[in-house]
Each structure stands twice: as C-alpha cells, then as structure tokens.
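Task: sequence design from structure.
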C-alpha cells in the first residue's frame, strides 16, 4: 500500500505539526536517527518558511562536466560561471538572482556568498550553479549534499555519456522519489547526439527515472552550447517560480520522506501483511526505497484491553484474598459466638484472638498476610505476559514490544497497591455487629438468671431441709418443681439459643465472606486497571496516534 497522494489537501503547518508529534511519540521506540532526522526536517522547515517565500532557489546539480555551469550561463544570458576543460571546475556554489530584493537572508541561510544580479525581470528566481556531486573533492560533494537538501527546486543536469550512472540514481534520485514535484531532469549536450538518438536517449532516461520512483518528472533535452531546449527549460522554471509554491512543496516532500523513514522502522508482525522494513542493503534490482510498500498506516484501531478473569484470579491469589475471605467468615463467627454463646462458656472464646484482626489488615502497616509464594508470583507474571501478548497481537514491532513492556511497567507497584486494596476492602467487615447479637446476648443472660434463680431456690430448700426447718411451698409446673425447671430449663434454653445462634453466625459469616470477596475482586480489578491495563492502553493509543500522525504528515 502506498501513501495516499493528492487526497484532501493537508496544509504544510498540519504536516509539520504531525511529523513533530510523530517524532515525539517515536522517542525511545524507534531508531534515534530517524527521530532526529524528522526533528531536523521540522526545524529546517521552520527556518525556510521564515525566509523569503517570494524567491525560489533552484539548483543545477549533476556530475562533473555534465554542463551545469554552461547551462547556468545559458539560462542567465551571462558568462558568470567558469566553464572549464579541467575537471572538476566549479568548487563553490554561486547564485544568479532575478530580483535580488529581500533574498539576502535566504542566501545567507543557503550559505552562498557569491551572488550576481541578472538585469531585466525580477521574477524571484535564484539559480544556483553547484559543484559536481561525483567529485574527487570531498568538499564538492559536501557542498552538493548540503544544498540538495535545502533548495526549493532541483534541476538534475545529466549528459549522454553518464545519464545512467549509478552514482546519481542511487545516491540522489531514488532517495528523492518523494520530491518529484520539485524536480526537473535535463539531458544536456543533446547537440552531441545524432538527431534520431535524442528521443531514444530521452526515453531510456525516462525509463530509468521511472525505476527510481520518479515517473512523471519533467525530462527535457537541452544543449547549453546551441541553446536548444534552453527557452523551454527557462519557461518551465519561470512557471514554477511564478507559482511561488516550490518552497512549500519541497518542505512537504521532506516531511513525507521523514515520515516514511519513521514508519519504515515499524515492522508489521503479521506475515499476511508485507514487511515494510527497509533491508540494510538494497539488491540492485530492488524498487526505490520510497516506493516500498510503506507508510499508509491510516487509521489504527486501538485494540480493546480489559482486565481478564485470569489476571484478577492471579492477583487475588498473590494478594492472599482466599486467606482474607476465610478470615472474614471466621471472624464473624468468632465474634458472633463471643456475643451470643452460652455465657457459662463463652468467656473462653474471648480469650482467642479475632482471626481477621490477627492479619493486621486495617492498620496501614504491613499486613501479616503470608507473602505470595513463588508459584503465585509466577502466575501473576504469566498473566501480565498474557495481557501484553494479547494487547500487542495486532501491533507492529517495535511498538508491540513497547506495548508488552507497558503491561509490566508498573508491576513493582502491585504488591503495595494490592495490600492497600485488601486493607480497605476488609476494613468494614470487623466493625459492624448485627443487632440480633444483643437480643441473643440478653436472652442468654436471662437463661443464666433463670438458672441462678433455680439453683438458689434449690439451695435454700436444701438448707432448710438440712436444718429441719419447715420447708417452703414449692409450686410445680405439671409435676416438675419450679426451681428444677428454672435450673435445667435455663441451661437447656441457653444451649439451645447458642446452637441456633451458631447456625445464624455460620450463615452470616458466609454472607460477609461473599461480600468481602466481591469487594476485594472490585478493588483488585481496579488495581489491575490502573497499574496494568491503563499503561498498556496508553501505549496502544500512543501507537495509534503515531500511525495517525505519520499518515497525516505523509498524506
Ligand atoms: N557539446 C556540448 N558541450 C557542452 C555542452 N554543455 C557544456 N559543454 C562542455 O562540457 C564541458 C564541461 O562544461 P561545464 O559547464 O564546465 O560542466 P560542469 O557541469 O559545470 O562541470 P563541473 O563544474 O566540473 O562540475 C565544457 O567543455 C563545456 O564546453 C553542450 O550542451 N554541448
Ligand atoms: Mg561547473
């Protein structure tokens, strides 16, 4: 899939903004070189648009002896440039200015001190004669590379002998495939070709350019010596200059190329999709880099990531939730028995500690829960890995790695967060005592009172009998005497109440345990959402935003 071209116009401002954001989003994810390059493009664009946009800097570039200086002279109607027989001739770039007013800062930025004003029209054309790109002199090559990277319009001057040279095609034309709108190719010295060969030569050159990804670039046959084709070339340049848009088209192409370079670092993991990564070395017959099935990430849907049951379960186990839930049930039963048990024996219960309090959950300090076992820790690890793997399944590398990393990025905070959650989810469990405990407790004391009354009554009777004093009248219930009924009935009722209360306490304990388990699950899900899912989603959104920004920058 190629980058969508010529779709709804996106302003240069928008593209630059998008590229700058894409570079920020790619920081620490993609290659630093590509990120830095994107930022440099944004910075350079900022400078260029601040300089004269009424001028168009056009560079004549090509191999030594192709006739750049000759063409420079022919186009300007001067003999400003030295045309030499010894190669290379031109060492430093020089400029011919049609309407120099206001062009100073632009030429200063281009760092071209040799400037000449061409009398006559003031169209805003700045024609630059460059040194040779294939020079034996390193300084020449540097000068060419520097200016090729910044001028508004490029005229590649080729000649019949060297137009197919790999140097110009591989080093310049292919990498500049996105700059076809700000490029012209001329075949100079056509006067040296037999008439019938000119067309064949031009067709051959067009074929080579198409293979470079530069289909549709204007190709002109000219002769600086005879002047053939020079007016046509001049007219073509004048059209570009009068539009005054070459500078922004060039910057837009730079932005698109930088976006493509960033995207090339992103590899699609799905084998059904083409591998967009640029191989380290291109085979000789490989398509040009910019024509590789690249960018166009388009809209990237952020995959849904949710707290899975497996994750909650693993975290719950590691946080000691089963121990806590059991303690909640036991604590309730313990306190219930202490409040409603048979008073004769229930003080024994009070001597035993509350199973929940024993865990020291609500004190804010470290709980006394047993630390997670190695098995539990590795289960959490597996669950985190699974979250990362599921979330990154449809995401290209190296973003997928970043997503997987994000899923575990806050795992160190899990232990403390889970401890806090367990503490707060269980803090309510210990405090509230049901009202029926008091009723049952009072009833229990009444049974004790009845037992005591019956016992005292029987003792008094026994004492009177012993002292042979006249006995007290003893009313009966049926045939059973009241004191006996009170003593035995009280004991029986007390035991019976204790028994019934135990049944209620058991059910109440279960209910509270269930409630605590639910609260704990909610709390743990929240911890998972905050510490695992949120960072994972953030990274996925970052990738989606990056893809969106790249699409915008390269559109
Ligand atoms: N026959 C013919 N010769 C040309 C033409 N243009 C340039 N030449 C000759 O080619 C030689 C090199 O021309 P220059 O203009 O110096 O070439 P250049 O590209 O500036 O070379 P460098 O400055 O070394 O990069 C000179 O001898 C020119 O006279 C042309 O259209 N036809
Ligand atoms: Mg020259």
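Answer:
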């Amino acid at each position: 899939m190629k980058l969508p071209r010529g779709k709804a116009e996106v302003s240069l401002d928008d593209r630059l903004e998008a590229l700058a954001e894409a570079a920020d989003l790619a920081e620490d994810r993609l290659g630093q070189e590509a990120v830095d390059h994107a930022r440099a493009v944004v910075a350079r664009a900022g400078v260029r648009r601040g300089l004269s946009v009424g001028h168009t800097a056009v560079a004549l570039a090509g191999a030594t002896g192709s006739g750049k200086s000759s063409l420079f002279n022919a186009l300007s109607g001067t003999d400003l440039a030295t045309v030499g027989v010894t190669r290379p001739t031109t060492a430093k770039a020089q400029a011919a200015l049609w309407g120099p007013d206001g062009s100073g800062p632009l030429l200063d930025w281009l760092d071209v001190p040799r400037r000449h004003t061409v009398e006559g029209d003031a169209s805003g054309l700045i024609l630059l004669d460059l040194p040779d790109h294939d020079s034996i002199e390193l300084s020449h090559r540097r000068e060419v590379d520097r200016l090729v990277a910044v001028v508004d319009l490029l005229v590649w001057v080729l000649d019949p002998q060297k137009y197919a040279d790999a140097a110009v095609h591989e080093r310049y034309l292919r990498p500049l495939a996105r700059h076809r709108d700000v490029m012209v190719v001329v075949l100079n010295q056509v006067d040296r070709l037999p008439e019938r060969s000119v067309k064949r030569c031009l067709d051959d050159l067009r074929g080579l350019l198409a293979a470079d990804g530069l289909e549709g670039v204007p190709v002109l046959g000219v002769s600086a010596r005879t002047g053939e084709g020079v007016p046509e070339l001049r007219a073509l340049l004048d059209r570009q200059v009068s539009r005054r848009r070459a500078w922004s088209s060039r910057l837009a192409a730079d932005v698109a190329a930088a976006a493509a370079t960033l995207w090339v670092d992103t590899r699609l993991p799905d084998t059904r999709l083409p591998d967009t990564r640029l191989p380290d070395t291109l085979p000789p017959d490989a398509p040009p880099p910019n024509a590789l099935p690249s960018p166009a990430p388009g809209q990237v849907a952020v995959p849904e990531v949710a707290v899975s049951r497996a994750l909650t379960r693993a975290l719950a186990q590691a946080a000691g939730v089963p121990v806590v839930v059991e303690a909640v049930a036991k604590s309730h039963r313990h306190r219930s028995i202490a409040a409603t048990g048979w008073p004769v024996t229930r003080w024994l219960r009070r001597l035993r500690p509350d199973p929940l309090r024993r865990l020291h959950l609500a004190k804010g300090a470290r709980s006394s829960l047993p630390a997670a076992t190695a098995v539990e820790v590795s289960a959490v690890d597996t669950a985190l890995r699974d979250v990362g793997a599921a979330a990154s399944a449809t995401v290209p590398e190296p973003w997928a790695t970043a997503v997987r990393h994000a899923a575990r990025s806050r795992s160190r905070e899990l232990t403390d967060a889970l401890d806090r959650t367990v503490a707060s989810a269980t803090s309510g469990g210990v405090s509230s005592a049901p009202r029926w405990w008091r009723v049952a407790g009072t009833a229990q004391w009444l049974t004790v009172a009845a037992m005591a009354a019956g016992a005292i009554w029987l003792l008094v009777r026994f004492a009177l009998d012993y002292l042979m004093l006249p006995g007290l009248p003893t009313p009966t219930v049926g045939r059973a005497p009241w004191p006996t009924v009170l003593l035995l009935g009280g004991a029986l009722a007390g035991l019976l109440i204790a028994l019934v209360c135990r049944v209620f306490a058991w059910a109440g304990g279960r209910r509270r345990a269930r409630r605590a388990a639910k609260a704990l699950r909610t709390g743990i899900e929240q911890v998972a959402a905050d510490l695992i899912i949120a960072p994972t989603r953030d990274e996925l959104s970052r990738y989606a935003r990056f893809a969106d920004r790249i699409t915008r920058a390269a559109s």
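The two ends are 13 Å apart (CA to CA).
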